[in-house]
Automatic annotation (TrEMBL):
Keywords of this entry: ATP-binding, Cytoplasm, Kinase, Nucleotide-binding, Nucleus, Ribosome biogenesis, rRNA processing, Transferase
Segments of skewed composition (Low complexity): 14-23
Pfam families for this protein: AAA_18
Region: LID, residue numbers: 113-123
The protein's name in its UniProt record: Adenylate kinase isoenzyme 6 homolog
Primary localization: cytoplasm
């Protein structure tokens, strides 16, 4: 099935942990009736990983297994994919790639509250400072597909969901 035969768009919501990906994706799915796919949950539920990383306290996802698992759903369209990485997903899957960005002091507090410490905390803060996810998105997808959105407050998230909902409603399959 070609990209232009999808009746609904696919959106990737990415960004450093703590930027509001899951909150934004969940609210956007409610507003648009698109399917929310949280990659972290999918990896845990379907064992799409190669074990545990003790240093970063997380699963080592198997990107090939994740892509195989999602292929049919993505071709069908109507998905909001929520994950902190983006460079391993096929470019053809996404009509919009949203990179959420959060001020470092806000992010530090959010991650500390989640129990992030040591290298896990500092690596995520550095990732945000150096805009690693935005660069990854820009290198992996066409420029007109990638959008960076501020995600510091509940108001920012509400505004982002409204803006993305408008985008979904006006989306047209490529001819």
């Amino acid at each position: 099935m070609a990209q232009n035969s999808r009746k609904k768009p696919n959106i990737l919501v990415t960004g450093t942990p703590g930027t509001g990906k899951t909150t934004t994706s969940f609210s956007l799915a409610e507003a648009t009736q698109l399917r929310h796919i949280n990659i972290g949950e999918l990896v845990r539920e379907k064992n799409l990983h190669d074990g545990w990383d003790d240093q970063f306290d997380c699963h080592i996802i198997n990107e090939d297994l994740v892509c195989d698992e999602l292929e049919d759903l993505m071709e069908e369209g109507g998905n909001i994919v929520d994950y902190h990485g983006c460079d391993f997903f096929p470019e053809r899957w996404f009509d919009r790639v949203v990179v959420l960005q959060t001020d470092n002091s806000v992010l530090y507090d959010r991650l500390s509250t989640r129990g992030y410490t040591g290298s896990k905390l500092s690596n995520n803060i550095e990732c945000e400072i150096f805009q690693v996810l935005l660069e990854e998105a820009k290198e992996s997808y066409p420029e007109d597909v990638v959008v960076a959105l501020k995600s510091d407050t509940v108001d920012d998230i509400t505004r982002n969901v409204a803006s993305l909902t408008d985008w979904v409603r006006s989306w047209q399959p490529k001819a």
